[in-house]
Specification:
Elements lengths: L4 H6 L2 H9 L6 E4 L2 E10 L6 E7 L10 E2 L2 E2 L9 E4 L8 E2 H10 L12 H7 L3 E3 L2 E3 L5 H8 L6 E3 L5 E3 L13 E3 L8 H8 L7 E3 L24 E3 L7 H10 L5 E3 L18 E3 L22 E3 L22 E3 L8 H7 L7 E3 L12 H8 L5 E2 L2 E2 L2 H15 L6 H14 L6 H11 L2 E8 L2 E8 L4 H12 L7 E6 L9
Helix pairs in contact: 9-10, 10-11
């Protein structure tokens, strides 16, 4: 129902923009591909017209913190995440099917035409501009026509667009689509997510990354009928809490791969009927690995990414370790500093691939990689590099020689004992080897005389006369031609000189 001029004049700016442009305080908006949260609607002192204040997702996108010329209009998250723009440039969201048509079917050929010749198709394809040059599609006629029919698409990618909802009047379904990418759109409620998913009965892959979704409440009161069976779910950068994550896994209980990095959660407690095989929980402020001990009971978990979670130590459950199938662990960019943490990692029964960059420091002049390889006998890959049999043997022997001499550090004792049983005891210290080597070198005793000076030296038997003369001239400090050299072998007492 249209409003009269008098009614419009009686509305304030907030009501007017809510009515006409669907803009309201707290809503998500897009301005030229940049997303943010609308925090203010009104005038700005010293500037003409109406403005909206936005707190951008990118903290460096704005110019201020919501305060301009000493007047505080709103409070931004960061000192430079806020700015003002004209309302006309802001988009508060569009219909899903509208955005699909915009990306895949806008400007399509007239599909009602019966002419399917290549000449007709080529002439109908729109040209695109790249800089100042106009480019035309060549050999893309069949592919382009196939994409025109959006309901036959197998994969739909709508990243960085403005999808926020789906029309309640939309009944046609995308029965062929198995992958849907909604990365960085304007979806804010799980109700809208579920409405969208009902249009994709065959969906298996769903990417909702960077959609700032509201917390999920009591799922018992929600209509969860006709939802597809999702196996691969990406929810990174969605600012969710632990309860929401658990509820989502209850709803989509067939998920095998879940990405929830940078969501802000501090722990993770999956439901009992969980079949996760791959979990990415990186860059969350978990801080203590014991908050993830519930994962040890997941019978199917094979890959765990917990990089950048601010772990200070790595402790496994004291009795039963669990993690029966965990073969790939990514925990780089944490704060491990103790070799006891590596001892804990070696308890994982199936771990074969480990990514640990950004932790630990070298010890006893031995490379970190070599120490880890020696202490973890099951590893076949470390920091994305294969461990060859030659590298493993070399690392284990060097470990024995560096850490196997008394007193043995208790943190390495079990590894030393295991490796000594495999390769034998450590080599003697270098000093002892040098002394032994010196004892085995045949020597001769030389006597240097000059006037009343006499010096005796032991030198290797292979020393040349020239070197002896040079030695004498340096020690006695005179012309080497005046030196008389006598050589006697170090023979047993009962031997005679030849």
């Amino acid at each position: 129902m249209k409003k009269t001029i008098e009614e419009l004049r009686g509305m304030n700016l907030k009501d007017l923009y809510t009515e006409k442009m669907n803009l309201s305080i707290g809503s998500r908006v897009d301005v030229n591909g940049h997303k943010g949260k609308l925090k203010y609607i009104g005038i700005v002192q010293g500037y003409n017209g109406e403005w909206i204040g936005i707190d951008w997702d990118d903290p460096m996108r704005g110019k201020h913190n919501g305060t301009v010329n000493g007047v505080k209009y709103f409070e931004a998250r960061c000192p430079t995440s806020g700015s003002f723009v004209r309302p006309i440039y802001a988009c508060s969201g569009r219909d899903l099917v509208e955005e699909i048509n915009s990306r895949y079917a806008e400007g399509n050929v007239d599909k009602s035409s019966n002419d399917s010749s290549e000449n007709f198709l080529a002439a109908s394809l729109p040209a695109i501009n790249i800089g100042i040059k106009k480019c035309e599609y060549v050999g893309m006629e069949k592919t382009y026509l196939k994409q025109c029919n959006i309901y036959r698409l197998n994969v739909i990618v709508l990243d960085n667009m403005c999808v926020s909802h789906v029309s309640p009047h939309q009944t046609s379904k995308f029965i062929h689509c198995t992958e849907l990418n909604l990365h960085n759109n304007l979806i804010t409620t799980w109700t809208n997510v579920f409405d969208i998913l009902r249009l994709f009965p065959s969906l298996r892959y769903l990417n909702l990354c960077k959609n700032l979704l509201e917390p999920l409440g009591d799922i018992s009161i929600l209509d969860l009928s006709d939802l597809p069976s999702i196996f691969h779910l990406i929810l990174s950068d969605c600012q969710m809490n632990e309860k929401t994550v658990t509820s989502i896994l209850r709803i989509f209980n067939q998920v095998t791969e879940l990405h929830i990095s940078r969501t802000g959660i501090t722990s993770f407690d999956p439901p009992d009927n969980c079949f996760l095989r791959h979990l990415n929980i990186s860059e969350n402020p978990i801080e203590d690995f014991s908050r993830l001990w519930s994962l040890s009971q997941l019978k199917s978990l094979e890959i765990l990414n917990a990089a950048g979670c601010n772990f200070q130590t790595f402790d496994l459950p004291p009795n039963e370790v669990g993690f029966e199938k965990l073969s790939n662990l990514i925990i780089d960019d944490n704060s491990f500093t103790q070799w006891s943490d590596i001892n804990q990692l070696s308890r994982l029964p199936s771990l074969k691939r480990l990514k640990l960059r950004g932790n630990m420091t070298e010890q006893n002049r031995m490379d970190i990689r070599e120490i880890i390889i020696a202490k973890m006998p099951l590893l076949v890959e470390l920091d994305r590099c294969d461990i060859s049999s030659i590298e493993r043997r070399s690392s284990e022997i060097r470990f024995i020689n560096r850490f196997g001499l008394e007193p043995i550090d208790e943190v390495h004792r079990k590894d030393v004992e295991r490796l000594v049983a495999k390769h034998g005891p450590p080599d003697p210290p270098v000093e002892q080897n040098l002394a032994t080597a010196r004892q085995k070198i045949p020597t001769v005793q030389i006597k240097l005389r000059y006037e009343d000076k006499k010096i005796e030296r032991s030198v290797p038997e292979v020393t040349t006369i020239q070197r002896l003369i040079g030695l004498a001239s340096r020690i006695l400090k005179f012309d080497p031609s005046e030196v008389k050299i006598e050589i006697c072998r170090n023979e047993p007492e009962d031997s005679t000189l030849g």
